[in-house]
């Protein structure tokens, strides 16, 4: 009788487990294929790896990280061949995965039991908008909106730099020249999505103030050489820019170093890097890859991955994007009543602008193919 009862209980437990769709963590593995900036980029890749570590610690899922350098397809195939269930590809390289190259079938088709996750674009749709591969998930961040906020903040700070900052800063007087710079790693949707939102944010406040800004931009700086960031940012600062936004991996380190050297401001990207050069990094536009790595991996563990949509978008409210809380730069505002009052006013203005995005304010999203019309920003002169 006891034996029959035990068999019955076992069958019930098995049935319950099957109904939940949950999978034993010991049977699961996730892979991270880093972008060209490498796993020590202090941002985009590193945040994803932190997500994988959290997955390992909290969910018990093993993970592996690959610096793919120039051969992303080979890295994807190696991980898939080795039985990795979920592979996050952080490089902007989709052709072999989605369409196939050299006469080979698409990698997604070759490994139908593996789920691939790509970032910063949605290449997994055909010309009619239909999903091509059910086992590919595209992750987008609403960084266009966060960049808009950063652009608005940049103008508000620039127009009031004499009140806000004291010794150690050497700003160009905005009454003489108004300029802001942008340095991107590559001319792709994953980079222009930042720049276009940034321009719109600059224009939004510039129009309110009745002023015009020159906008210097470079979209082919690469992601690995800080010296490039220092050189290009130096040129922009010399041209009168008081703020330069870098979206170029380790190139951004050169931008922040140059900002400190000349006594002006930089904006960083991906992770919170406000402390990289305290007082000279105005803010960081966050693209926290840790969040999707964890949430999608948890879906794998919970057995709900198959019901997850093929396009996952992370908004300002998700915690995966936005700007920093400005506490670091706030510590370097002058200790005067006038500076404190102006800084409080600017932060409130930024908060009010953020609240309008998505309703009163529409920001172009290049990551989903929306087109940016420079004529829509008449108070920004793109150089």
List the helices and strands and how they pair.
Layout: H1 2-20, E1 29-34, H2 44-59, E2 62-67, H3 72-81, E3 86-89, H4 95-98, H5 107-110, E4 115-119, E5 136-141, H6 143-159, H7 161-164, E6 179-184, H8 189-209, E7 213-218, H9 226-238, E8 241-247, H10 251-262, E9 265-270, E10 281-287, H11 290-302, E11 311-314, E12 321-323, H12 327-330, H13 337-356, E13 380-382
Parallel strand pairs: 1-2, 1-3, 3-4, 4-5, 5-11, 6-7, 6-8, 7-13, 8-9, 9-10
Antiparallel strand pairs: 10-12
Helix pairs in contact: 2-11, 6-8, 6-13, 9-10
Overall, the morphology is elongated
Largest sheet: 7 strands, mixed
Q: Output the strand order for the largest sheet.
A: 12-10-9-8-6-7-13
Measured as a percent range, the helix fraction is: 40-55%
Known CATH architecture of the domain at 143-287 and 320-382: 3-Layer(aba) Sandwich
Radius of gyration: 23 Å
Using the coordinates shown, work out and report the CATH topology of the domain at 143-287 and 320-382: Rossmann fold
Alpha carbon gap, first and last residue = 85 Å
Describe the structure.
The structure is a single chain. By secondary structure, this protein is of the alpha/beta class. It is built from 13 helices and 13 strands. Helix 2 runs parallel beside helix 11, helix 6 runs antiparallel to helix 13 and helix 9 crosses helix 10. The N terminus is likely disordered.
Keywords:
383 residues; alpha/beta; Rossmann fold; seven-stranded mixed sheet; six-stranded parallel sheet; 41% helix; elongated; disordered N terminus
What would a concise description of this structure say?
By secondary structure, the chain is of the alpha/beta class.
């Amino acid at each position: 009788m006891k034996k029959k009862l035990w068999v019955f209980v076992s069958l019930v437990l098995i049935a319950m487990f099957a109904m939940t769709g949950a999978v034993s963590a010991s049977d699961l593995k996730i892979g991270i294929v880093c972008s060209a900036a490498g796993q020590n980029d202090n941002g985009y890749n590193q945040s994803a790896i932190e997500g994988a570590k959290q997955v390992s610690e909290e969910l018990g899922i093993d993970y592996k990280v690959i610096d793919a350098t120039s051969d992303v397809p080979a890295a994807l195939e190696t991980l898939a061949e080795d039985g990795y269930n979920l592979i996050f590809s952080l490089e902007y390289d989709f052709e072999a995965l989605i369409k196939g190259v050299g006469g080979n079938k698409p990698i997604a088709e070759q490994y139908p039991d593996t789920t691939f996750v790509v970032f910063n674009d949605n290449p997994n749709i055909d010309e009619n908008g239909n999903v091509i591969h059910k086992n590919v998930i595209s992750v987008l961040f609403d960084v266009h909106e966060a960049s808009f906020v950063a652009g608005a903040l940049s103008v508000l700070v620039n127009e009031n730099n004499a009140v806000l900052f004291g010794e150690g800063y050497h700003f160009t007087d905005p009454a003489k020249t108004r300029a802001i710079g942008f340095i991107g790693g590559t001319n792709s949707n994953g980079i222009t999505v930042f720049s276009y939102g940034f321009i719109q944010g600059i224009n939004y406040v510039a129009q309110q103030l009745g002023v015009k800004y020159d906008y210097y931009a470079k979209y082919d700086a690469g992601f690995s050489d800080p010296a490039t960031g220092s050189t290009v940012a130096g040129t922009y600062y010399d041209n009168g820019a008081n703020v330069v936004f870098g979206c170029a991996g380790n190139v951004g380190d050169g931008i922040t170093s140059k900002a400190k050297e000349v006594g002006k401001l930089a904006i960083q990207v991906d992770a919170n890097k406000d402390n990289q050069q305290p007082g000279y990094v105005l803010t960081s536009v966050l693209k926290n890859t840790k969040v999707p790595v964890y949430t999608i991996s948890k879906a794998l563990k919970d057995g709900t991955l198959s019901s997850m949509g093929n396009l996952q978008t992370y908004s300002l409210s998700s915690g995966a994007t936005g700007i920093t809380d400005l506490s670091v730069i706030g510590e370097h505002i002058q200790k005067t009543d006038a500076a404190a009052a102006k800084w409080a006013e600017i932060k409130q203005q930024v908060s009010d602008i953020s609240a309008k995005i998505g309703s009163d304010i529409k920001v172009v999203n290049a990551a989903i193919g929306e087109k940016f019309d420079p004529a829509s920003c008449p108070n920004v002169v793109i150089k």
